[in-house]
Amino acid sequence: NLKIKNETILDLEDNLLLFFTGFSRDSSLILSEQNKKTLRKDQEIIKNLDYVKSLGSEIKKVLIKGDCEEFVKLMNHHWKYKLKRSKNMSNKTINEVYDFALENGAIGGKLIGAGGGGFLLFYTNTPNKLRKALVSKKLEEVRFKFDFEGVKQIL
Fold first, then answer.
1. Cα separations (Å) of 152 from 45, 48, 113, 148?
2. Which of 8-12, 38-42, 59-63, 90-94 shows the lowest mean pLDDT across its residues?
3. Which residue of 6, 48, 96, 126 could cross-link 105, Cys pair, CB 3.0 to 4.6 Å?
4. 94: how many CB neighbours lie within 10 A of its CB?
5. Is the pTM of this model over 0.85?
């Protein structure tokens, strides 16, 4: 369990926005490419993955401190490193949406998951402005709250 202050959790819930890109993809293609490079001991991919792992540790530290602005910088940095792993990580439309979001209130963001499609997560201090801008681009927002109970089985 991370000892993140309730104030920080609320800040993240208020200012993180999640949008479906409109693209579904087979993540196994990107993950397979990454796995092959790793098994070949490709130094670039290994350094990239090690660095991203270290970013995870830094993100943990800044969230425990309650520094959401630094969290966003690290999230953005993570996205830039993720893009280097595969030419299939993103596409023209996702890149355009990402840039548009930055022009309309997003401070930073990243594609969630293996890449190639799925969901974009953005952090903003002006959620309604960003929300309106991305909805105008026909992106569907997926509202969420953090769940601290874990997996549940429904019978």
1. 36, 34, 22, 11
2. 38-42
3. 126
4. 19
5. no
Alpha helices by DSSP H, the chain:
6-15, 27-39, 43-65, 68-83, 92-103, 127-136
For 107-121, how does the pLDDT look when each residue is reduced to its tens digit (9 = 90+)?
999 988 655 568 999
**How many CB atoms are closer than 10 A to CB 19?**
22
Interacting residues of 119 by C-beta distance below 8 A, sequence separation 6+: 18, 19, 20, 21, 111, 112, 113, 142
DSSP secondary structure code for residue 25 in this structure:
-
Q: What is the pLDDT of residue 40?
A: 76
Specify the DSSP class assigned to residue 23.
Answer: -
Which amino acid is present at 72?
V
Tokens of 134: 């991305």
> What is the amino acid identity at position 94?
I
